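QA checklist item 7 of 12: single-chain prediction sanity check.
[x] sequence parsed
[x] length recorded as 363
[x] structure emitted
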Amino acid sequence: MGPPEVAWFSALCDDDYEYLGVPDPGLASSWDHCRAITVAAESHGYDSILLPSGYTLGIDSVAFAAAVATQTRRINLLLAVRMGEMVLPQLARQLATVDQISGGRLVLNVISSDVPGQSLSGPDRYRRTLESMAGLRTLMEGRHLQTAGRFVQLDLDPPAVTATSGRCPPFYFGGLSDEAKECAAAGADVYLMWPDVPAAVATVVSDMTDRARRWGRTLRFGWRSHVIVRETEAEARDAARRLVSRLEATAGADIRSRSLDAASAGVARQAQLRAEADSDGYVSRHLWTGVGRARSGAGAAIVGDPDQVLATLQELTMAGVESFILSGYPHLAECDLFARHVLARMEHGPLDVVVRPVGSTDG
């Protein structure tokens, strides 16, 4: 296993604050603000930047990726794509175009959420996602697609524009339900986990490795969390307390409820961690669950001094994590702090993913 990938996060979905739950017009999702985060991440040496996707909040991730690809030269663009929201052939053409604009720096974070205004059962939603991943991979690689799935029924040649390398970009994918795990095992290349204690991470890695093996595939593993690093542990904990010092419970609940994944198994596990935490929100010495009070999705932060944060990342690496996708509040400021205090001391690099064919969707 080589050095881990270290990615940062650009707040396309209005998820940037000085005080959690207190909107700040200067930190709202916009081209200028999110571009500044992305350019800073590249200048600091991060390997990738996550470009999240939402429906009700923020700016469009695909349009942003196309534009910011012309403003960057090295950093990989980890673009979140909500499967099922767009007609698959058009999505393949859009993504292949972005890949060409970026010079082959596109990586895909597959999201299996409901289409706005519609609702599918978990099994159906993940089947649609798996069929879409298989079709997208075929079209982006310039191959004829002939499929008669439950949700994807197409017989057509690929668009004229295909992925720069001739191979579809890797799929990053996460989810804790049984259906989500099987979808990841069958079709993803990197399985993403939200924050948890190392023992639980190791258990998930073992489980997903076994599931992928049954599909004749292999997976690599990523960790998506927040981070708060300061020169001393006391200063880091003070920064965590300050972050939630103006948060009202009703405001936090409203923020969490807006997400289309608010009822997912992963979100439920983040809530369970908050319930298991101590009175200050720590489920372990350096894993603080306070972020989840005002955020759906990844709801915990690694908190500590540079040595402690680095040691926590190393412990997670030993548990099987090969890609860290981090963020902090405000995102631009914490991007700089983590880079100076921790990233500069790490050996890291883009994740070299061997893309495996998507598993069969028969049955």
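[x] summary fact logged: The chain has one domain: 5-226+310-345.
[ ] second reviewer sign-off
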